[in-house]
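so my prof wants the structure for this chain in the tokens format not the other one, which i didnt know existed until like an hour ago. anyway here's the sequence
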Amino acid sequence: MEESCWLKPMIRFSNRPPECSTSLTFGVDMGLLDFLFGKTKCPQCGTKGARTSEGRTRCPNPSCQYFDGALRGRGGRHRIDGLFAPRRSDYSPERPLAIRYCNFQGQEKTFTADQKSLMRRGNHIVARVAPTGETIALSRDRIQNLSEVEQALPWVVGAVQQTGPNKRERQVLGFHKKHKSSSPLYEKIRTKYPDW
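here's what i got, hopefully its the right format
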């Protein structure tokens, strides 16, 4: 009989705001199963994503005393047994190039990059650097030896020069090939790219 009395008030007040039925819920709150989904908060700093196992709290916040680096999902590294897989530290560039760089905090850093991996994207130079082999983007405005770096860029740019028709020429070539037709522009492009 007591169980049915306990259930009746819960059903009767289910459409009321939570503060009206706190005495009937016996301290059970909405986050009852959050521990299954990793949505618990750190007791020290309140950061979401903390884990508690075997009486030990692990927090993804680097400034917390319970910080555990294995909980931080960064950089696309793969997890192995709860820890991130170590990065390769034996990468050595075939054609090394020292890039002097001043970061946003004003710290001078020197990166050893591979000349083969140098690429310009907008206002940045993208390169693969030693010792990890990680690809980074460096702002051209902050590179101290920009002239040396840009001299190394044509080595890559020269190897990737246009060897075939551009988009418009490919469109004309494809149309006439598909329809088995010809035009003066098609003939001009065919003489320019006979092997295409």
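also thought this was worth mentioning. The two ends are 88 Å apart (CA to CA).
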